[in-house]
Design brief:
Blueprint (H helix, E strand, L loop, with lengths): L2 H6 L11 H17 L3 H19 L12 H10 L3 H8 L6 H34 L4 E3 L2 H4 L14 E5 L5 H9 L3 E6 L2 E6 L3 E6 L9 H9 L4 E2 L6 E3 L2 H18 L5 H13 L5 H11 L2 H15 L6 H12 L9 H9 L8 H6 L3 H7 L10 H14 L1 H10 L2 H14 L6
Parallel strand pairs: 1-7, 2-5
Antiparallel strand pairs: 1-2, 3-4, 4-5, 6-7
Helix pairs in contact: 2-3, 3-5, 4-5, 5-6, 10-11, 10-12, 11-13, 15-20, 18-19
């Protein structure tokens, strides 16, 4: 492993109380960056959220909430980003009002209980699937829970499994015997629920075919998992393949609707623990095959900037602010940015509305396959798209957003730099 990488992701010793030198260093950085940029509140919010995250990861007391930020703002971000245990768990160490402290305690109790149930359920299902001879693999958040210092620090909305079998009959039976009720089958997975807290997703594909054909085939054509130690039917990724899949999953969400800041913490925590030992050359090669090498580079850099209080350019502040606004899995109206980025360079001066209302034939073919070889029908496809837009709220929101030229330029810069050229 290169020495520079080891320096970037150095391990830290836990500490119970934040040192005054740390406070002074962070405050100096906040002050200098406030003077340098016009979006100073975003800088302060970014730095303080990083303070709270590291306080939880390293077990020390954070600074007091800055005057420009309210407890209510932080609580709202905690829930929208699906990080209440991480953020509110740090805030409860501070002097809060009685009402605020009780709100934090309630959130921590619920989160702890949910984590306990999720971990126990995932383990039991793995055992049952192994006994039944069903090839299975637990995915994403359920794995990350065991990479974080404590499982409850990494929250997740559902438990994800990959089932490497064509027939789901036995899987359905095992899941339903565990008390789950089948809700529906969508995209590339089946959703089950168990009241009051558990949701389970059983996948038959690792990647959605309708997002990026190249990555779909990357996971479809080659079996990348290996049997877990002592198991015959329970599989897992190598650390390198897990990291690539984690970035691939994050990029998918970002491309479709945007994604939240919890993904940045995942990147940081993984690299803190395994960055010194994984084969970076292999990781880079696989990321390049998936077309997400630039995306990973920018996101891992943002994770370091955010959680190690590094010097920050306006681009990264804007990217971080956008990710906060995305919540956890983004918003439907954000889907337009990745498509507009394919058609325009950020500095282009052509009409924003022209680009939006009359996209290129290549763009339209992704949504109207019948255009292939029939480019003369492009005006008809535009008409169909316009009618669809009038009937759907997300489309109306996108149209409103495009009228903000400054936001348009900012979003074009973000998506161009991340370079997600996915093709359905």
């Amino acid at each position: 492993m290169r020495r520079s990488h080891r320096r970037h992701y150095r391990r830290r010793k836990p500490r119970m109380q934040v040192r005054s030198s740390h406070r002074q260093r962070v405050q100096r950085m906040w002050n200098s960056q406030e003077r340098a940029m016009d979006n100073s509140k975003d800088i302060i919010l970014m730095r303080y959220l990083g303070e709270l995250i590291r306080a939880q990861l390293e077990n020390w007391t954070p600074q007091a909430i800055p005057d420009t930020i309210t407890y209510e703002e932080l609580e709202q971000i905690a829930y929208s980003a699906q990080m209440p245990y991480m953020i509110l768990g740090a805030l409860i160490r501070l002097p809060l009002t009685q009402e605020q402290a009780q709100s934090c305690r309630n959130a921590l109790k619920t989160s702890t209980l949910k984590t306990l149930l999720q971990v126990q359920t995932a383990d039991r299902l793995q055992e049952k699937l192994e006994e039944a001879g069903i090839r299975n693999q637990v995915l994403k958040g359920a794995v990350m829970k065991h990479i974080y210092p404590r499982p409850e620090l990494r929250e997740m909305s559902d438990i994800d499994f990959m089932i490497y079998e064509d027939d789901f009959t036995d899987t359905d039976r095992i899941v339903e015997e565990a008390g789950f009720v089948k809700v529906q089958a969508i995209k590339h997975h089946v959703i089950y629920q168990k009241a009051p807290l558990l949701t389970l997703e059983m996948h038959w594909d690792l990647y959605e075919k309708t997002v990026d054909k190249s990555q779909y085939m990357y996971y479809k054509d080659q079996f990348r998992a290996v049997p877990a130690e002592g198991k015959k039917y329970t599989y897992e990724f190598s650390r390198e393949n897990f990291y690539v899949y984690m970035i691939s999953h994050m990029a998918k969400h970002f491309y479709e609707n945007g994604c939240g800041i919890r993904n940045l913490v995942d990147i940081y925590v993984f690299n803190q623990k395994y960055g010194h030992s994984i084969d970076r050359t292999q990781v880079k090669q696989e990321l390049k095959k998936c077309g997400i090498l630039d995306f990973e580079r920018q996101m891992s850099e943002l994770a370091l900037i955010w959680l190690e209080n590094r010097k920050c350019s306006k681009f990264y502040v804007n990217l971080f602010r956008y990710m906060i606004d995305c919540g956890i899995y983004g918003k439907g109206e954000n889907g337009i940015w990745s498509q507009l980025c394919k058609q325009n360079a950020p500095q282009q001066k052509k009409s924003f509305n022209l680009t939006y209302y009359f996209p290129t034939a290549q763009y339209m073919k992704e949504y109207y396959p019948w255009l292939e070889g029939k480019e003369g029908l492009l005006p008809l496809a535009w008409l169909c798209r316009g009618v669809h837009g009038l009937l759907h709220r997300d489309s109306m929101e996108r149209a409103k957003t495009l009228k903000d030229r400054e936001k348009y330029r900012m979003m074009m810069e973000i998506y161009h730099n991340l370079n997600l050229n996915f093709v359905k």
